[in-house]
User: Fold this.
Amino acid sequence: MEATTEVARFYAHRDFTVPSRSAVEGLRLEATDGPFRTGSGPLVSGTTVALTMVMAGRSEYCDDLTGAGVTTLRPRLRPGLFAGHPDFAGRPDGRAGWNSDPSEQET
Assistant:
């Protein structure tokens, strides 16, 4: 549980390889099985694993979550939603990913 909680904290506070922080911005996340809690706003609750997987972009885990914030969170996880975000513009191969320097992307 400790390792999963640390991964959840990482995703909640950074847009690294996925826009996890942006996806949960304005929402309060609370794990039902451990100490993970972050944010403010409408509640999204579930297991630490389900919250972590949602922040990693796995929208199917929304089905394992409860709370008023789930209706806000779910559409934020649609494929391509962050395509216009300057840091997540997508890769030439069509996969989502960090795009800080397009010249260094895989082809």
